[in-house]
Structure formats: C-alpha cells, structure tokens
Structure prediction request, 293 residues.
Amino acid sequence: MNYIDLHMHSNFSIDGEYTPQDLLNMARQQNIQIVSITDHNSVKAYQSIIHVQDITLIPGIEIDCSFQGKDFHLLGYGIDVHDPIYEKIEQDIMKQEQECSQKRLSLIKENLHLEIDEEQLKEISPFGIYVPETICEIAMKDERNKDNPYLQPYFPQGKRSDNPYVNFYWDYCSQGKIAYTKINYISMEEAISLYHKQGGIAVLAHPGNNVKEDIQLMNDIRNLGIDGIEVYSSYHKHEQIKFYHDICQKYNLIETAGSDFHGKTKPSVSMGLCHMPEEQEETLIKTILSLKK
Prediction:
C-alpha cells in the first residue's frame, strides 16, 4: 500500500458513496498520509471538510473534457478551489446530465430489455441524475431481471463481476456504446489552461481506460501541455504501467498514483492500492507537496 493516493471521490461526485470527511478518516486509518479528493467537476468537498488531522490534503478535481472527439478525465492538483469557474462547470454538466437521464434510462430499457423500478431509481439518485451505475444496481436487485442475458456478466462469478456497476457503464453507456448520451464538455486545452492559470498541474487520469496504448493519441495529448500521467492506477495492467512510465521518463512528465476509490460502485478498488514503487513515490510526494497552498 502507498502512503499517497491522489484520486478518490466523495458523495459530491454523482457516483461516490462517502462524505469527504469519511474519506479522510478512512485514509488516516489506513496510514495514507497524502490525499487529494478529486470529485467529478466539483470542488465542493473542500468547503465541507471540518477536520484535516494527520493528513496532507492536496486541492484537486477531475474534470470531464474532450479532445479529438473523444471524452477524457483530466485531474488537476494545486488548484484554487475557491474560483467560481468550478461552480459554473459543475452546474453546466449537471444540467446536461439531468436532461440526458431519461433518455439514457430509455435506451437501457429498450436495448437491454431490463425492468427498472423508476420510483426507486428516483429515490436513490442524487441531483435527479440517473447514472448507469445506479441503474445497474437497481436492475440487479430486481428478480424480474435475474435471467436477463445482458446482466449475467455482472452477477457473482460473472466475467465482469469485479466492479459490476461501473463495468456496466463501460460496456453499455460509455462513448460509442448503445446507451451513450452525449454531454458537451470543455476541451482538454481549456482544462489544462485553467489549471495552469491557477498555478496547478494537469494530469491525465487512468489513460489505460481510453487512450490505451495508442502512442499517436498519447503524443497528441502530451503536446497539449499536460504535466503528468496517472501511471499507477487500480485499472492498469503491468504492461500499461510500463508503457506510461516509459513515456513519462522520456518526456520528463510527472508520474502519479491514484486508486479512483468510489465505494460501492467499484468494490474491487481500494483506497491506497495503487502499487507505486517506493522510490517513485518519494519523488511524487516531493513534487505534490510543492503544490500545497
């Protein structure tokens, strides 16, 4: 386990389970000493935290953005969490998500032939947004869907049962899939510029999920001016870690570590389990502490 985890989500993310204070308490119990709460398009966690004891908290966020027609997540560290621009970004995306929710639900029901209790869905959907993870959770608990072939991979012992809810998202609701609903995000260039204007750094999140090993795409993103790559991620296989490590070494980019802990939506993802070598962790700690404001 590492002493640093720079990627976790509170309940200010629409798919996070725990409060920001809960996350800090959990990190302290696991002897994680440096953390960043990087909610999706939101910095509200930093206004709700009461006690930061025996932990160094680095201001952070994970912004949805686009580049070359594809959606990406860009982590920002050392940012100004009081800048009203983040409230504007959050409200814009939330409004679009609310408008897309019913369409997303309809596409899932029509294409996957799932029975969904919509009243129950409303009750457990913060902000009136029907995220795929919650839709999957409700569908899997409904006896009417127990034999549905589209859900079988997510039940225990199924091939996608390690993180069933978020895997459901990637399989059916992510970009290019049958239940995808388009959200207009800011460009990656804009996100990078925003972080830099505030004296922060821009780090590409879990590229193994979307960039994969596309060297041309990775180089195009690097040329936008990112400062680092989340090399050590809960999602990355050994080969991917080496691929992104080599890129960082070649171009002098920061290598970061983040679990992307959410709670129940990703049960196999544990806080702090990013598996970063000790020597590189020491380098990262020195770099990230310089951003503490």
